[in-house]
Amino acid sequence: MTVLATALAGASDTRALEAGVGVLSRTGAVFTETFGDSSAQLVADGTTWAVAGEEVSASLRAAGVSLAPPLVLPATPTVYASYENVSLIREHLRGSDAVPVVVGSGTLNDLVKLASGELGREYLVVGTAASMDGYAAYGASITKDGFKITQYCPAPAAVVADVSVMADAPQRLTATGLGDLIEKVPAGADWMIADALGVEPIDRGVWDLVQGPLRASLADPAGLAAGDLAAVGRLAEGLLMSGLAMQAHQSSRPASGAGHQFSHLWEMEGLGRDAEPPLSHGMKVGLGTIAMCALYEVVLRRDLGALDVDAAVAAWPTWEQMASRIRGAGLPPEVEVAALAQSEAKYVPASALRSRLTDMVSLWPTLAPLLRAQLLPAADIESRLATVGAVTHPAQIGLDLDRFRTTYWRALTIRSRYTLLDLLLEAGLLSSCVDELFAPGGFWGQRPWPGVAG
Ligand SMILES: [Zn+2]
Q1: How far apart are the CA of 310 and the centre of ligand 1, in A?
Q2: How far is the CA of 259 from the centre of ligand 1 (A)?
Q3: Mind listing the pLDDT tens digit for each residue in 376-392?
Q4: Residue 101: what are its φ and ψ, rounded to 5°?
Q5: 347: number of CA atoms within 13 Å, CB side?
Q6: Which domains does the chain have, with CATH numbers?
Q7: Which residues surround ligand 1, an ion (CB under 5 A)?
């Protein structure tokens, strides 16, 4: 994993990273190299403790690290990413100056990341599943007052990722990791569009960290489903690289495009929150990835170089008209407030739109083949996700046709980040492209909802 060393050099928070088969026993050495002679406070839940708790403790003890009694949360029900749990962990940590060592991925890591951040304390994560890119990233996704938000907090100072532990994790966790990672394909295309139009330039070094290893990380879904060490190792590497790239860029842009916005909107609306276990981030992101790759296919069958710019500019709403559309989008009240602010931040008046669309018309013949080379077919994404047992159809997570269909428009309102959705909205093409997806021969038209006539 030599590429990880390059990524580590650019990371703002993470100073040590040990990834590979059997590296759990290196935890003690990583800890003392990073934190000197500090003591350690282990945090786990019943499940992750059973998987790796004793071995991590033994490794720390062997390195001469003194250990506070571990904080082990119950295994069931699944530990929830709530602010109450952050407070519980933070108050426990406050009792000493020990460095937190969290054994877990996903929610547990987010809880300890935010609790440590609030105490101004560094921490170490021992990742137990290749389930998300967040274990090497800053920020934690936490529900506070019933509203899921990403709260800023530093990334872990040290990361241990034992691929043999990750390969033994439940398959749904690997599936959610693949869902989170595969979105980097259309997210890259979104960034290419934003770059070409001068909205947000690509940082080539950071781009390479994510996109360089990406295809190899996604290449073997059957191996992932079988818990193959090489396949899981490559997935873990891709996820770690994405986290480190976000640190280097101080933004999630390198690892998150419109497919993530689908997931964020559903998270804000509480989709699957009460399921046991709760519907994971990566399952929703994977579905958002299929949705966006299908939309890219519709767009790339058209010639945007032939766009009627005058007509698009004439049809462009004023900000007041746009704001009233957003108010009519059926968003929960607190999401609507955020959506208005995010959308206003990226709104351009008609004169600026004219120059942007004029640029797009001249750039399209060059840009379209580059987008084609970046993307994967939606059916290919769908098949890889199906192979690992991930979500591939909205009905599997209780989304009805209308709610899913309108996500193509509502998702773009919640984030100021410029993606294909924004380009299509500005060009006046979003509705017709989405209509094509749901028409009888379109991607979603061929995948009817149960009980809905195809
Ligand atoms: Zn993600």
Answers
A1: 38
A2: 9
A3: 999 999 999 999 999 99
A4: -125, 105
A5: 18
A6: 2-169 (3.40.50.1970), 174-204+255-438 (1.20.1090)
A7: 180
